[in-house]
Design goal:
Blueprint (H helix, E strand, L loop, with lengths): L2 H12 L9 H4 L1 H12 L37 E6 L1 H4 L6 H7 L5 E5 L9 H8 L3 E4 L6 E2 L13 E6 L2 H10 L7 E4 L9 H4 L4 H16 L4 H33 L8 H15 L4
Parallel strand pairs: 1-2, 1-5, 3-5, 3-6, 4-6
The structure holds zinc ion.
The site of zinc ion has 7 residues, from loops.
Length: 282
Amino acid sequence: MNSELNEEAVEMNEEDDDEDEEEPRERDDDEGEEGFSVLSDLPVEMSERRPTCRRCCRPVKVCLCPYLPPRPLDVSTCLYIVQHPAEESRVLRTVPLLAACLPPGQCKVFIGRRFSEERYPELAAVCRDPRSLLLYPGATADNLEDLSTDFTATPHNVILIDGTWSQAKDMFLRNALLRLPRQVQLRSAPSSQYVIRTQPTNMCVSTLECAAVTLSIMEKNHSIQEVLLKPLQALCSFQLQHGAQIHHSKEHLIKNGQYNKIMPKNKRKIRRMQKLISNQNI
Ligand SMILES: [Zn+2]
């Protein structure tokens, strides 16, 4: 098997650990050491940056462009993704896939933890716009499905927070701007898909899923959801296939006392991904 594919799968499994923490990468010290020991065994030229596909932002050898729509989807809703900095460095970044499916400029990403009016005037303007909605669940959120607004008549903006559950909560509570727009949540998202509530560790997946469901509702077009989830399903399917091999190698490491990570976490993540792939009627 191609070494790049295995590398991807290793990184996918390691991504599982950032539950309820502000800085996932900082807690992954043991994984960092493992990464370094693997890297140190490689020839120097192997550490050079891998060529990346410009459209899907994936390494060229695992490009997901065949699963993207040939042309950007025709949507009038504009997405604004407020992304925790830790998300940007994740390997399973799904926001670039989302952006690649949408017309240019209709999926904007702001990276940071704190968003002030002064430093983010564009985001501030969006937050103050009465046509903007913040997708974030809570007691004060309205169900998007229950709103009588015709979103196809007047283009709206949707703001999504991209991070782990605790990161998103922190960003919501500490940024007054994000509490300005009308807060909405998804009622129709089935539990297996609604990672934002039940699977707090995997917000990177749920951001794409939530955006897919949201756009389908607002644009009154269910096929949008299918188109947007296609690259995600391909990504999960791909990672699962290759993750299984890494699983063996980790077991091998454990047997040899060289690996101290708790295995069930990976199994849980694998089950989550299997659920996502098998659920066709989202
Ligand atoms: Zn690509």
